[in-house]
Amino acid sequence: MAFDKTGTLTKGEPAVVSVTALGGHTETELLEIVAAMEAHSGHPLAKSIMAYAQQKGVRPAAASGFEIIQGKGATATVNGERYWLGSHRYLEERRQETKEVHEMLETMTNSGRSVVIVGDEKHVCGLIALADTVRPEARRTLEALRAEGIEHLVMLTGDNKGTADAIAKELGLDEVYAELLPQDKVSAIEKLVSRYGAVAMVGDGVNDAPALAASTMAVAMGAAGSDAAIETADVALMSDDLLKLPWLMRHSRRSLRIIRQNIGLSLLTKAAFVLLTFLGYASLWSAIAADMGVSLIVIFNALRLLADSGAGSSSR
Question: Residue 311: which pLDDT band, with cuts at 50, 70 and 90?
């Protein structure tokens, strides 16, 4: 079973823990620039940065020409100058990383921080470090899934490797794929499917939708999930409670057992009356009574599932 990180294994509500201004900028200037750009984004990190700027009394500067760089960051013109923000990978692609900035990023990411890097065409303007918290039920859920027979638990994330490794170590995951673009998540799922045969994917964001489609069974975190993820998924957890996953497995297995019981009983009854008819012991009324009796037994047997339906998952 593969899990997205942000919003699935973690709360998806990261908080700003530090702002480091570089290149002659002040913290206020940096927040004005970043807030101007993040005001156009719906990403959880963007919302956290906007909340932090508001808390500090910083008003976003005017931004124009905002453009998202899928899986990497964004660019915009602020106060007549072109700025960008994004991940460590995007910084490396722009070839603007210095030894000092690299060391600072290594320290932050190794401590489990997600870092938003801000720069212009000349240099890096600053670093904003954020930390997300693991869902309180995440570890119990993973332990329960292992008890249900899940062989391998994997995390897929677009975050940096340091942050991903810190979360994986805390939760006891078997494998981590970090710094993934949406198409990389699809490749990871395809690789897992070829290795294990059947793979479930749990996610919530637009970027998770392609990977959800590539999995054997797709599960979306319904309350906080994007429309794309929910539409792609086979199952939507409407309460966003990860503990519904082991319940879902138990409930599904019990449903299959009851379906097999009902089909077996129905076929056995039909076969018995066909035999009795040939032997001359069956009548029309006894056949009708037996058929109605089996129908009632099947209904009441299926109704036993209601005793285990309090978990409230929704599936299509």
Answer: very low
Cα separation, 32 vs 46, whole angstroms: 13
- How high is the pLDDT of residue 117? 92
Q: Does position 310 have pLDDT exceeding 60, yes or no? A: no
Q: How far apart are the C-alpha atoms of 113 and 48, rounded to whole Å?
A: 14
Same domain for 43 and 110: yes
* Closest to 185 measured CA to CA, from 161, 162, 213, 227: 213
Q: 221: Cβ–Cβ under 8 A, 6 or more apart, which residues?
A: 7, 8, 202, 203, 204, 229, 236, 237, 240
Give the pLDDT confidence score for residue 312 in this predicted structure. 45
Q: What residues have CB less than 8 Å from 269, skipping those under 6 apart?
A: 290, 291, 294
pLDDT in tens, 81-108: 899 998 888 898 888 888 999 999 888 8
- Crossing angle of helices 161-171 and 99-110, in 10° steps, is 10
Q: Please tell me the total count of domains within the chain.
A: 3
Looking at the annotation, which residues are catalytic?
A: 4
Question: Is residue 102 located within the same domain as residue 90?
Answer: yes
What CATH number should be reported for the domain holding residue 25? Answer: 3.40.1110.10
Amino acid code (one letter) for 256: L
Per-residue model confidence (pLDDT) at position 139? 92
Whether residue 250 sits in one domain with residue 228:
no
Percent of the chain exceeding pLDDT 70 equals 96
Q: What value does the mean pLDDT take over residues 29-57?
A: 86
What is the structure's pLDDT at 316? Answer: 39
Neighbours of 173 (CB within 10 A): 21
Average pLDDT over residues 144-155: 92
User: Does a structural domain hold residue 137?
Assistant: no
Which structural domain, as residue segments, surrounds residue 115? Answer: 11-131
Q: Are residues 175 and 203 in the same domain?
A: yes
Chain position carrying tokens 């600072």: 104
- Does residue 2 sit within a domain? no
Distances (CA, A) of 302 to 268, 306, 312: 18, 8, 17
